[in-house]
Amino acid sequence: MSSQVQNHKQESTVEGFDISRRVFLSSTAAAAGVTLASGVTLYGVLSGPDLLAAAKSGVTDAVRWGMLIDADLCQEDCNACVTACTKENGLTHNRPETDPQWIRKISLRDSKTGRETSLPVMCQHCSEPPCVDVCPTGASFKRADGIVLVDKHICIGCRYCIMACPYNARTFVHEVLENQKDHAPRGKGTAEGCTLCVHRIDEGKQPACVEACDDKGRAMLFGDLNDPMSEISKRIATYSSKQIRADLGVNPGIRYRNI
Predict the structure, then answer these.
(1) Fewest C-beta in 10 Å: which of 97, 136, 189, 207?
(2) How far apart are the C-alpha atoms of 252 and 230, rounded to whole Å?
(3) Angstrom distance (rounded) from CA 138 to CA 152
(4) Contacts by 10-14 with C-beta closer than 8 Å and gap 24+?
(5) Given pLDDT bands bounded at 50, 70 and 90, which one contains residue 97?
(6) 3 state SS of 20
(7) Within 10 Å of residue 237's Cβ, how many Cβ atoms?
């Protein structure tokens, strides 16, 4: 894994996407494959009044969306973020042991002090995502604003991305699905994971998990990591925070406090 992380290919930009050299599709095909369902695209205009002026013309690398999660404010018995994600994206929880969770709660225990910490983990939306590096078709890709996604139209179900992800954040759809959400299309034989609720972001809203947490412990803060005046950037500059497995050098967009 470390060699995959360290030896990243040089990238080129096609229609706002960072695409690895190992993608064998033409740039035209890659750009055309971003429409997932009727009226649903993987990039659009960010028009919310609370979003940054730099993003108003569309997806741009002037913005990098990220999240800061304070483990001290995350209650062990609270699953509001998981429930909100499940509802927003049409995930099923009939079989909790095997059904996908794009965001999951985990518990950490300090072996020396016995201190226990609860925190949510999802796709970390890495700046240098290993899932993108190993994908043979370009189905795993990173938007210019840092959101890592899967184009279900060109995913061949090889599951390389699942094996490459150091955060266990990708899952595979084994069955035919019904009653899907138009904004979160899923399909048998494809890989999937947290999208940061990209459809909501492109409408100027926060991810569903963050909105749900605001009504509970306010442990999750979403914003632009590239804007020094954003609340998330101010907090990261003021308080100590960590990236999970920072040693891998993939630069996750999800950061944590008090872990």
Answers:
(1) 97
(2) 18
(3) 10
(4) 13/144
(5) low
(6) strand
(7) 9
CATH class of this structure's domain 2-257: alpha beta
Q: Are 147 and 42 in contact (CB under 8 A)?
A: no
Query: pLDDT confidence of 96, banded at 50, 70, 90?
Result: low
Q: What residue type is assigned to position 221 of the chain?
A: L
Q: What is the pLDDT of residues 41-74, one digit of tens each?
A: 333 333 333 343 433 447 899 999 999 999 999 9
List the beta strands (DSSP E) in 1-153. Answer: 11-14, 17-20, 35-37, 40-41, 65-70, 103-109, 116-122, 140-143, 148-150
The tokens of 112 are what? 């020396």
Give residue limits of the domains in the chain: 2-257
| Bridge-based pairing state of the strands 65-70 and 254-257 | parallel
Return all residues near 209 (Cβ < 8 A) that are at least 6 apart.
80, 81, 82, 84, 85, 103, 120, 122, 197, 220
- The tokens for 94 are 């009939």
